[in-house]
Amino acid sequence: MNLPHQVKLVEVGPRDGLQNEKQTVPAAVKIELVNRLQAAGLKEIEVTSFVSPKWVPQMADNAEVMAGITRLPGVRYSVLTPNLKGFEAALLSQPDEIVVFGAASEAFSQKNINCSIAESIERFAPVVAAARAAGISVRGAMSCTVGCPYEGDIAPERVGRLARLMKEIGVQRVDVADTIGVGTPLKVQRAIEATQAHFDLDHISGHFHDTYGQALSNTLAALQMGVWNFQSSVAGLGGCPYAKGATGNVATEDVVYLLHGMGIETGVDLDKLIDAGQFISDFLQRPTHSRVAKALFTKRTAS
Ligand code: HMG
Ligand code: MG
To answer: In ligand 1, which atom is closest to the CA atom of 249?
Structure first.
């Protein structure tokens, strides 16, 4: 076991969490959510995406949200940019980090960004170069690293190949994503191992959706390898519009509880985080998906 002493969480609720919502979530609500998340101590927040509004209407207010948040020193604000058009639009909002997003599965690449894996890398290369020239950090999200909704199981070699391609174009760190939450601990570890051929552990993060209830186990499996960067979504919000049936990411509250219980520091105030989760759950008129938030909320109201 190679457990880290501290973990850095990238909160993806405002982006991955809300991108799939059918009801309109006003920019003001997204802004308030981001402000509450950073008040809870989160130091990295994935705020929005600069993608086609025809493909993902919920993210059409990207510039308005970026302009409305209160930027705190020491907090990194990231946005998704699939191509140069998205990057150029994002640049006006001055993100600290941009995210190019590819897939280990050909079919998912086509469904999600309308091109093959090879074409996606060709599109990302000038985006990565332009971002780095502008002093903006670059992360690469790797979708479907254990399973694909269209192709089924994904071999670790395909993850390794995508990680190599991302490295070659100058991506600085990558997310090993289980987009549809089908992974189990050993499969996730194989995907991370394949990524380690090209990125060291400091530059690999885990991004686990919880569709099959495996995301916390997968988080623990990654922690045991020494991974110390994870993405999670407050209240377990979300899912990808191009991965039907996939539910949200592992809830940030649940990950924080797991980590604090293991003596691993996150810098996050769990009570404030639960309030942020309650805020967005109230707006969506849905109970939170976080088991920890439910339990602690019940305890709070009982006392
Ligand atoms: P396309 O149709 O092939 O693009 O879409 P195109 O270049 O042919 O352009 C078509 C139209 O879109 C044009 O407009 C462009 O101007 C416009 P029209 O002339 O028809 O009016 N367009 C744009 N508009 C705004 N921003 C842009 C942009 N680019 C083109 N950046 C494209 C290709 C990539 C744009 C499209 O497929 C797309 O937007 N896909 C988004 C998919 C998405 O956001 N998925 C969810 C995020 S990924 C995810 O959730 C997974 C992750 O969480 C990790 C995991 O869990 O696996 C990260
Ligand atoms: Mg995701």
So the answer is: 56
